[in-house]
Amino acid sequence: MTVRKFRQADWDEPLIFELSHKGRYGFHPPEAEEEIRDEVNVEWLIPQGIARETPPGLPEVSEVEVLRHFIHLSQMNYGVNSGLIYPLGSCTMKYNPIINEVLASHPDLIGAHPDQDSSTVQGILEFLYKLKQGYLAVTGMDDATLQPAAGAHGEWTGIMLIRAYHQDRGDLAKRTEIIIPDSAHGTNPASAAMGGFKIVEVPSGPDGCINLEALRAVVGPQTAGLMLTNPNTLGIFDHQIAEIADIVHEAGGLMYYDGANLNAIMGKCRPGDMGFDVVHVNLHKTFSTPHGGGGPGSGPVGCKAILAKYLPVPDIVFKEGKYTLEYNKPMSIGKVHGYYGNVNVMLKAYAYMITMGPEGLREASELSVLNANYIARKLKDTKGLSLPFAPEKPRMHEVVLSAQKLSEDTKVRALNVAKNLLDHGLHAPTIYFPQIVPEALMVEPTETEPIEVLNDFIEVVKKTCEMAYTNPQEVLKAPVNTVVGKIDEAKAAHPKTICLSWRRLCQLIAE
Amino acid sequence: MSRAHPYLPNSVPEIKEKMMDDIGVESIDDLYVNIPEKLRFKGELQVPGPYTEQEVKRIVSDTLERNMHLKCPPFLGGGVWPHYVPSVVDEVVHRAEFLTSYTPYQPEISQGILQSIFEYQSLVCELVEMAVANASMYDWSSALGEAALLASRLNHRETILVPTHISPSRLAVLKTYTSPVGMNIVKINIDSETGMIDLEDLKEKVKDNTSAVYIETPSYLGFAEDNVEAIGEIAHEKKALYIAGVDPISLGILRAPGSYGADVVVGEGQPLGNHMSFGGPLLGIFACNHDNAIIRQMPGRIIGVTETIADKRRAFVMTLQTREQHIRREKATSNICSNEALCSVAGAAYLSLLGPNGLRDLAETCTSRAHYAIRRINDLDGVKAPIYNSYHFKEFTVRYANGRAADINKVLLTHGYQGGKPLKGEFPELGESALYCVTEMHTKKDIDGLVTALKEATQ
Description:
The structure holds two protein chains of two kinds.
Chain A: H1 34-39, H2 42-45, H3 63-75, H4 98-104, H5 107-110, H6 122-139, E1 143-145, H7 151-168, E2 177-181, H8 187-194, E3 198-202, H9 212-218, E4 223-228, H10 241-250, E5 254-258, H11 271-274, E6 278-280, E7 301-303, H12 305-308, E8 315-319, E9 322-326, H13 343-379, E10 399-402, H14 404-410, H15 414-422, E11 430-431, E12 440-443, H16 451-470, H17 472-476, H18 489-493, H19 502-510
Parallel strand pairs in A: 2-3, 2-4, 4-5, 5-6
Antiparallel strand pairs in A: 1-7, 6-7, 8-9, 10-12, 11-12
Helix pairs in contact in A: 4-13, 6-13, 7-8, 13-16
Chain B: H1 13-23, H2 53-64, H3 87-93, H4 96-99, H5 111-128, E1 132-133, H6 140-155, E2 159-163, H7 168-178, E3 184-188, H8 199-205, E4 210-216, H9 228-237, E5 241-246, E6 264-268, E7 284-288, H10 292-295, E8 303-307, E9 314-318, H11 325-328, H12 341-378, E10 383-384, E11 395-400, H13 405-414, E12 421-422, E13 433-437, H14 444-458
Parallel strand pairs in B: 2-3, 2-4, 4-5, 5-6
Antiparallel strand pairs in B: 1-7, 6-7, 8-9, 10-11, 11-13, 12-13
Helix pairs in contact in B: 3-12, 5-12, 6-7, 12-14, 13-14
């Protein structure tokens, strides 16, 4: 089979402001009824000094122009449902089922205000409650909040629970450190820092797992907790996890599970059984909800019973046949979101969960692992590539290859391999992460990619590496089949040329 | 069931076997050997299903339909508001290429979403009259929390002043965000008659350790602040940052924060083409002036315009990433990674559709109908609306002389109306009162119906 030809649509689309023509409307809001207008004169209503004097410089564009503009822009973009594989490691870009979108547009959901009387939103509270129950089952936790709006938001919420726990025990002044392995997602140290903790990094051993000696050396009475993702970002399950948890617990610290990689283990093992005390899960990864080009996500946080009293308010409870929102939690860390989190996203996750059921979730995990190992197997011996850190160990849901040799031999870097994939209509993997792997290509195919597409991906990577040795100049040209070629990122960030809005662009052009 | 799952193309036994053969394992569990036996989950996960698509549709729809059907949208605001979402906006955000894309780490193949978010940033800048906006925060509350942290990073001061009538949930989130850095939150008094910020009290409380002064206009209780310029001057005299929180729809007719000296603007972008969805996803607006010191401390993703290297064509990228967690780790300006990108695309489509005139028309309709409602409700015996004597945009307080606000809402529900949010729990000094909201979604007929029901409920 040969890989298909690809050319991304390119409309050379102007900015919406450049489509503006004075007097055009794209939408008519209704006018107030005549009787109301007769009675209420807006101009008289607004005190002088606070009325807007100059209308906002928004474009004036007709409906069809706005629609086409954004459809053109959408066609200049790549989605997992519209493209082929989207193997961004640690991002779990699986198929986003259409039925979930249909259900999430249900008027009984989208028209509901969060402050409505709970008697009017029993349907919503019911699915939220049931989603939480399913979440607890999958993670092996005792209680949870659905409030965090994204994974990092969940991490920080979890860190705040750890903080509250130590504070409650009068221990916070001395427990100032969170331990994080060097292979962790960047959000982990950032979230812990936002929670007011100092970060202590522990190195990974040669097998990609935590170096226990190094861990013992840094654990102590100052340890508030440890943040870990397992399987880790190398796609390797850390078999010492029970020991790690013991070391941290014995020192009085708590164990935080970054659920970004949960897709590998649903129904196979649970963070709660591994010794974790608090966990977040990215519903936009493992539970198939679309990521929308950067969000909305959803990052529910689960915890063991010892932390339950600190969870954010409100909690959804089921009492006497009714679902209600419970605010009476005096030890709670408070609120982390204005309302209850990204409820619309949660509906999609709920629909996914019951579509799969227990065996479907397990099979999804198994096939994600099968797909990743298939790619690892087919690519690890490619000239120029290697599989660092315990190549003999099976990978879980993702595999991290290194293009270090390729780069040394040919000057073709991981970045260039990525751009060549784009030219074939295949999305690139995550690159240069984890930072402990030089020239990293972090591939997470997910369970929803058919073998045919995996083979295309493998073929393109292999051919790119081959060509790097025979005709590197050709490889370095990529991408050429995308809307734009290489972009001047330095100019984008330079203090003199930085431009973050149309308003600024007009100023720069005028200068 | 032995049928291959529709979402799992490789679950066909012969494909699975071939793949296992190629890998060199005999069973899938051979790939899980690194999980110690004692940690393996042996039971069956306690989750419902599996169900077919058709069954799922029935189950989920049946569940949602246990909600009560109201006669018209709820008369509720406070941070999420019922506004119409034009069909074009829904169409745009359902495009698979936007909906199912990830953060645009590969800009060459992601120009569509990058340009859309750049346009969102640009449109917000026009709305608030600032030069910089980020790609979004989770919601108004988290934007406020991050704005406070930004202020403390910039001037290393520890106090933020907020109005006494700040939204309680925004205040709660602000507290959570700022507690680890030990910021103090101090409340500024308001005039009990008009609700306006007490400038004398403000002057007294703004000190050398004041990091920022924060106001909300329109306020949580619905009235617009008159002294927006004077408040900024007082803040700036002590070199504190001036942060304004806004409802973007109000900016169709009310002054933009950039015109009265705000340094940072936060707000809730949900009304810009996003459904209420029981409070999420929302869209945190975060904007500031083109000040390099502030820009480099900003949280979140920012899209910039630049050009291609070879042919100097206009192109868009995520920029200033050296502020962000994936590069800076614990030294990042924020931990935020996923934001509300698709909601900002909705915002871009929405503001493009309405334009300056549509937004003004919309704001006028909201405020006209709200004032019609205020008059009719205030006409009722034993009911006062609004409590504060000042201009209200689309939300207003209603005080009941007889009966509890919660009980009154129960009666309203029997007529199919969701009344205003009872305020006694949040602001005991307001007594039995409620916060109502009227928008373009409420027709005169809806308002008249509400008033008739209120009459019965308050008798």
